[in-house]
Design goal:
Shape: elongated
Distance between the termini: 52 Å
Number of helices: 9
Strand content: 5-15%
Radius of gyration: 21 Å
């Protein structure tokens, strides 16, 4: 059964296949929907309009102006983000692999690839890139490489690491610490096949 518009999520609406990119230039998306799909706060959306990063559509309804964002510009922003994430994956992987089986702090990793830990957009980029790298490493090497990237405040990975682990069926009924320790054991064994799997604590 076809969904009615008010039943769609923001992501589903942005991805509507029947609206091609040419037509999408003229489709108004409410600011709240644009913000949700891009992962921004609404003031950030308005700032991006002022900066020319997003295209605004204004419809005059008997003197009342209805404002929104052009669907095409939202899709363009999402594609640009995906391209940026793809470009980041290799340099991030290089930095992580250079550390061997030692952990690296998020802030230091971000600085090494030209991102700022104080910038929410950059934090989203690093999270998405690490998510992709971990899916790759799980498939190719058998572990989540993002286990090596830790928060300065805790010395442990972010919540996103544990969520990804459980999504992939790793440690469904185990604590966060057990999940992380298991991944670190696998990583250390991969880097040094002669290492004891019981040495990591």
């Amino acid at each position: 059964m076809t969904k009615r518009a008010f039943e769609w999520t923001a992501e589903e609406y942005i991805d509507l296949g029947r609206i091609d990119d040419r037509s999408a230039k003229h489709v108004l998306v409410p600011v709240a929907v644009a913000a949700k799909s891009l992962g921004y706060e609404q003031p950030t959306i308005r700032a991006h309009v002022r900066q020319g990063k997003l295209t605004e559509i204004i419809i005059d309804c008997d003197g009342h102006k209805v404002k929104g964002i052009a669907l095409a510009s939202i899709r363009e922003a999402l594609r640009a983000r995906e391209a940026r994430i793809a470009d980041l994956k290799e340099p991030i992987r290089d930095v992580i692999w250079h550390t061997g089986s030692e952990t690296v702090e998020y802030g230091k990793l971000m600085a090494a690839v030209g991102l700022s830990s104080n910038n929410p957009h950059d934090r989203r980029l690093i999270g998405s890139a690490l998510d992709g790298l971990s899916r790759d490493s799980l498939k190719c090497e058998g572990f989540l490489i993002s286990a090596l990237v830790v928060l300065k405040s805790t010395g442990r990975p972010s919540d996103g690491f544990y969520k990804l682990a459980r999504i992939n069926g790793l440690g469904q009924n185990q604590s966060d610490d057990v999940i992380w320790h298991n991944q670190m054991r696998l990583i250390r064994c991969w880097f040094d096949p002669h290492a004891s799997l019981a040495t990591f604590e």
